[in-house]
Design brief:
Blueprint (H helix, E strand, L loop, with lengths): L2 E7 L8 H13 L4 E7 L14 E4 L11 H10 L5 E5 L4 H10 L6 E4 L7 H5 L1 H21 E6 L2 H7 L10 E3 L15 H6 L7 E6 L8 H12 L5 E6 L4 H13 L6 E3 L5 H10 L2 E4 L8 H8 L4 E4 L5 H7 L2 E4 L3 H14 L2 H18 L2 H13 L2 H18 L1
Parallel strand pairs: 1-2, 1-4, 2-3, 4-5, 5-6, 6-7, 8-9, 8-11, 9-10, 11-12, 12-13
Helix pairs in contact: 1-15, 2-3, 3-5, 8-13, 11-14
Amino acid sequence: MNLRVLHVVPSLDPRAGGVAEAVVQLVNYMLPYGCTGEVASLDGPDVDVSDRLQGVVHRLGPGRGKYGLSLSAMRWFREHADRYDAIIVHGIWQFHSIAARFGIGRSRTPLFVFPHGMLDPWFQYTYPRKHLRKLVYWALAERWVFSRARAALFTCRTELELARRPFLNRRTPLEVTGFGIAPPPGEITDGEAFFAAYPDLRGKRIFLFLSRIHEKKGCDLLIEAFARIASRNPEARLVIAGPGDDSTIAALKHEVRAGGIESQVVWTGMLSGTLKWAALRAAEVFVLPSHQENFGIAVVEALASATPVIITDRVNIWREVAESGAGIVVSDTKDGVTDGLLSWCDTMSPADIAMMRERALACYQREFRIEGAAGKLVDLIAGDESVSQSRSNDSRGRTATAG
């Protein structure tokens, strides 16, 4: 097929969260479908990006401030937009989307926007002042991006339905392309590498939180819930793995001390590569009590590792987990998370856990392999009228030249 697609993202730094990982996965798994991917980011030359990306990275930053303002990025997109069969903007509310839209200008290159959960109304209710600023920004700038887009892309039906309000209108084409992840590395079949790094956890019942440490992830709920079950389950250990700002982590550590559970909580910082996958294998259960989660890459990584999950019904893939019997779904409240942990500790026998591990892996295999989502996205791009016309013109040009 030989398509050339540019993915635009604010940052490819792995610490930036799921959007960066999503771009890596899509670029790599669209490649076998005949789609060469490149990435343009607002990262500066000193920012670490994933070494797993099988494509060229154009660092157009650093942008100025948190918004990432970069006039040079706008010029770069204007100079290079016509080189691509399609441009996909990943994430919104930062300057990368405006820069890409400006750069396309009157080019025939189709634009797609992948919000990655950033239109979820949870943000509206939780941060009303920020939401007011976003309404103004939408009216002045971001709406301009979506008005040019061939389609807004979503990972699942739940995300699409939530995104309809308060920003999108009926004129915006909406497509569910799905999402998934690559399988774990074949050589990591157990948690041995993790236990080698944290030997005191060997033989313990590991409740693993592995994600960005942020208010929306519900870490405070998890700590309070774990404090309620810790004394009754002395072999239980809560492992909190992930990056976060110092003030947030300090506040959570204070909660751990106040709950008297310091001896049963382990902070690892961000885990990646072999250690991350080994931690997922080592865990008895993965816990993500989020208030809002567009897709939940870490949840799917746990399922792919045959590790059951406890998640809230604010994680948009909760229906697939529940229907597969791959975990426990709870409300995003202190009582909801506590009930989930209590249910796990009090009712799950070793045989039950073994069965749920099988269901977790089956859920991943059936619902969340990346190949299907990558193929669907390639088909959507290849089927776009302007792409088809451009490829037809290229073909005629090559035929005429050959003649």
